[in-house]
Amino acid sequence: MANIEIDGRQVEVKDGSTVMDAARQLGIYIPHFCYHKKLSIAANCRMCLVQVEKAPKPLPACATPVTDGMKVFTQSESAIRAQKGVMEFLLINHPLDCPICDQGGECQLQDLAVGYGNAASRYHEEKRVVSNKELGPLIATDMTRCIQCTRCVRFGQEIGGIMELGQAGRGEHVEIMPFVERTVNSELSGNMIDLCPVGALTSKPFRYSARAWELTRRASVSPHDGLGANLAVQVKANRVYRVVPRENEDVNECWLSDKDRFSYEGLNSAQRLTQPMLKRHGEWQECDWQTALEYVANGLKRIRDDHGAAQIGALATPHSTLEELYLLQKFMRGIGSGNVDHRTRQSDFRLDAALQGAPWLGQSIVELQEVKSALVIGSTLRKDHPLLAQRLRQAVKAGAELSLVNPVDDDLLVSVANKLIVAPSNLVNALSQVLKALAELERTEVPTALAGISVTPAAAAIAASLSRGEKAAVLLGNLAQHHPRYSELHILAQEIARISGASLGVLGEAANSVGACLAGAVPYAGPLGRDAGTGMNAAEMLATPRLAYVLLNTEIELDSHDPQQAVRAMEQAELVVALSAYRHQALNYADVLLPVAPFTETFGTFVNTEGRAQSFNAVVKPQGEARPAWKVLRVLGNMFNLNGFGYNSAEEVRAEIIARGAMSLHEACNNQSRNIQLGDAAPAAVSGLQRIAEVPIYQADAVVRRADSLQRTVDGAAPGAVMNGVLLQQLQVEDGEMVVVRQGDGSTVMRARRDDALPLDCVRVAAGHPLTATLGPMFGEIVVEKA
Amino acid sequence: MANEVIFHSIHQPESWKLSSYLATGGYEMLKKVVTEKVPPEEIINQVKISALRGRGGAGFPTGLKWSFMPRHFQGDKYLVCNTDEGEPGTFKDRDIIRFNPHQLIEGMAIAAYTMGVKVGYNYIHGEIWEAYERFEEALEEARAAGFLGDNLFGTDFCFNLHAHQGYGAYVCGEETALLESIEGKKGQPRFKPPFPASFGLYGKPTTINNTETFASIPYIIRHGGQKFLELGKPNNGGTKIFSVSGHVNKPGNFEIGMGTPFAELLEMAGGVRSGHKLKAVIPGGSSVPVVPAEIMMDLTMDYDSIAKAGSMLGAGSVIVMDETVCMVKALERLSYFYFEESCGQCTPCREGTGWLYRVIHRIEHGQGRAEDLDLLANVTSNISGRTICALGDAAAMPVQGMLKHYRNEFEYHVEHKKCMV
Amino acid sequence: MLSPESLAKIDKEIAKYPAGQKQSAVMAALRIAQDELGWLSSDTLEFVAGYLGMAPVAVYEVASFYNMYELAPVGKYKITVCTNLSCTLMGADSISAHLKSRLGIGFGETTADGRFTLKEGECMGACGDGPLFLVNNKRMCGCLSSEKVDQILAELK
Ligand SMILES: Cc1cc2nc3c(=O)[nH]c(=O)nc-3n(C[C@H](O)[C@H](O)[C@H](O)COP(=O)(O)O)c2cc1C
Ligand code: SF4
Ligand code: FES
Description:
Chain B is α/β, with parallel strands linked by helices and 421 residues long. Chain B has helices at 18-23, 28-35, 40-50, 62-67, 92-99, 101-115, 129-144, 175-182, 211-215, 217-231, 262-268, 293-296, 303-308, 327-341, 347-364, 372-383, 391-416, and strands at residues 78-83, 119-124, 160-165, 206-210, 239-246, 252-257, 260-261, 278-282, 291-292, 300-301, 317-322. Chain B has 17 helices and eleven strands. In chain B, the strands form three sheets. Chain B has a five-stranded mixed β-sheet with strand order 6-5-11-8-9. A four-stranded parallel β-sheet of chain B has the order 3-2-1-4, sandwiched between helices. In chain B, a hairpin with an 8-residue loop joins strand 8 and strand 9. The two termini of chain B are 39 Å apart.
């Protein structure tokens, strides 16, 4: 520890701190541009020059280490003279176009220039002009305004894990630019907009739509991936104009993924459903709520009375709120049906009976960054959970070893120490190898089921890496959870974690995956794991079609494991009620569309993957006749005269689940399954080609699907049929050629793409995309032919 | 005392060959320290006694610098030689690697032994390709003869030395920019601290010295620090190579004792161009303040004497200007150089060097304004001492020096829109 | 993209640096590529990036930072004249003027026949030999006079 004095105030700081750190600790503001607490120190802007006793010249606070007894003056004449000098240099080549600059009103340069600049410029030479760069649909550029702080460049290198922007040239001619005409494609790119202290990088979707000072900031929580990023939603005239991060060190730090940031465009989509609709004699008609709800209540009652409540099923997305999911299951169980599930992309539910709680990350997000070794099973992590991937990236930078067992080998923008890239049918076998190697390494008994397994060097390396790590984590990703043998993958992962002393984590697919389980929106348990009788899981409800379905926020043709089967079930049903914020394909199979509010238009709670409950209020009023889904479900409950549906607010609903405080949620999270038994670990026999399906980052939920700018990014591009070059050759197809892809009785035409890292007998065809919504199961057999 | 330390073998045919070097006792000192296991402290002590100061420009005491290296640090450490001279007026290091490369290699190897370093690099200015190639050949010779490589002289001492070519960036002469450049990046200087001795090449402890500094080492080991010191004067030990260019009859490098009167050096360089009169001298490379003839003629060539006259010895690069030189024009060219060579990372240098150049360019082209001279002075004071590396100061100092001694020429330009010479 | 000879040269450069520090060879790799191809196209830069495992933009940063790399085609002979102070005092102006009139081009230009590009350079660390120029980054010609310039131009076919 060192004691130093800044502007006459004493402070004790950790060794190795800088003057800037110490000043921040005291709440003293030192002007700066290049310094950013999450980035490496560049010390290039020189705005933070301060006077240090005994130093012959002013020193940059951001880069000057403290020494015991140091005396710093941030406001002395010499400090201010230095700062003013730097400000003058920054302004000589900066355009004075604040009135038309999108950064106006929230520009660090503008703010500081008021305090440090001179009224009149002494610079009479020609100003520099820098050409703008086309960085893609998300980031607009005005490079003449750039002050070369290099925050954007450092962000890419250090946080995003990919250097897409550089500072080319030298001297006065330096320019921030991508390589030749490339765009910035990082899934975290929008953070560069926040980092840019001037108006050089601004939000393209937001551009020119409003001035910063007209917007009201409202707190919210992201409804997308399992992280639950904290948002500041910026609103004007009951419309969301922009989303920026709300800092929360424990969750998203000061970052947002592009999905969290730009998906708001989907809230203002022309496809918003703003009026209840009924299909009468094959024609869709708008109607009032009363009519629609009576129709629904009568329909459901009739089916229940004539055929039994078990003929009614409810399917929801885990992007719905805790309150909505809670009321959905309460309603369903109230009318006598246990058929409620949110796991529409899962296909293997054999583990349900053995689960002891809601599957979750198994540790806090902050702890994830501190692991020394991690094994990720089945996930392209940076696309599934961009900011969790970022945490692991930092862990690896700090020396952690990352291992991967996965069917695809995309660049995760982090160095992967060991990997086993195998076909989906070999995943169980691959994990069994790791377990066996680990058991041998740790000298515990090798389970008999694994006796015949031969261990590959990669599996042995993974085992060794886990057994070394003092803090290790085994993480089951989205792909693992969707896998047809998820139960075995889970059991193997659990055993690997047990033997190596690692924590076991299940990466919650969506913002409220954990919350959905806690709310009881699963057939095997009620709220907080309470016993709730039996019911059908998502797969059963679709495989054995029900007469009636209640769909909450789900576009079943995009959200299910087997869209072919799902749509068939919908088409066969007598009554399909879709609670949705959008007019979507349900128009083809539903009977009633009830317009419900997306997250920005309702109070709600999401429980993120680390079991953190985060509530939020509506930031705008519901569009048109849309209503919060919890209210709709409450009315339905009332129409059925169910007990306990007298809520006056969503907070009351929340209180019912979190009666004993948020801590109780954690107790209900548990990844350990009971009575585990290792099954046959031999690779499953497959004939033909296996499909590998992941959900593209910008197709994961209804809101982001309608965010136009994100759809225009590289990640938003139409998926292809991706294969190993050897397979392409066998099929006599060229990279880039169109192919017909068939599953069951569905087919689609896609572009063939080559990726030699894929296992030989596999075709990677994304799920969750309209282009593939006619196909079958995510990991089923698939046929590819020349188009 | 001329050519005592470095150019002692320059008269030999093919002086750069290993055989020539061996004929003058080359590599004997390396062999001695390595095989006799001379304690490193003793070597550092001799270097300290010699009062050898860094020949790269800053004049930092070499023995002291070496003592900063964490000697017992077990991991990788590096030794780097700075042959990136590219400051207008400098051209001595090129001649060292052209005519006596083995002495540099020997000096580096002794330094490596002293500081417990196994790998070294010599960073060579991009434009002197032929010298670079010759140095590569010398390295090959030294490796083949067992003066570089593993287990030298049958001991456990290993030292591998490689050449790294620059490719056109003056700023890479700045030692941390040079390290960045070896790491395969733009040559943008690093903020210090941390200093290279703790965080240098690839983040490892590193010592960087100038070519001439290293090349002086074998002499110090052979004759002792005291003898070297006595070649010069106290606190300014040894001989120094002075590179004389500009308006002299015989430009070139002259290795003479520190403290030699400037007048003698000028004479060695054949005196001022025939028929002309000395006007001014830039005594230490373009970055140091100009010194008018009258003052210069009374100075001796050493750090202390020149510092007293308000300038600096720098790398010993003496630019001689006769009375035909327009100081505004001369400064315009130098200011363009710093504007062109600024690495662009820090604000005062990136923005300030362009500003300086443009104003001086205007003055030179008859568009000066009365307030420009004060503006120039003020802009230089806003650059000096506020940048990451000393290039900012280097850009400011010539302007300040010119304004101090030749303000009248600038005023004349502003007023009459033309030159007075 | 590059000849086996060039790749062998690059490999030799890579070997100078510690394992895992291939990027250190980027300056040499670009020099070698430029020697073979005359200039550095974006394809070349991308190739070098791939060869050394660097981000292409990081290679671009390097190529655009150092003056001796050419990011656009140049003539068969690139003549870079040092015009810095020492050389100017020693007659660089008249050498430049002579070159310009002999070649019929100014600084930064290439002759119509694609044979010569003329460039203005900064200090080459050889001021004692001024005035001087550099041919194709390699051959330094010093102590120039108009006659000597003519002689050198005649050699450059
Ligand atoms: C802009 C700039 C250019 C420099 N150029 C050189 C150079 O060409 N050669 C050199 O040896 N030192 C140069 N230096 C000084 C080096 O940073 C460093 O001090 C020197 O190499 C240390 O060696 P020495 O102690 O032996 O002098 C330069 C410094 C600056 C700020
Ligand atoms: S002073 Fe100039 S050369 Fe040195 S780091 Fe700053 S911008 Fe670069
Ligand atoms: S904030 Fe310290 S130099 Fe930029």
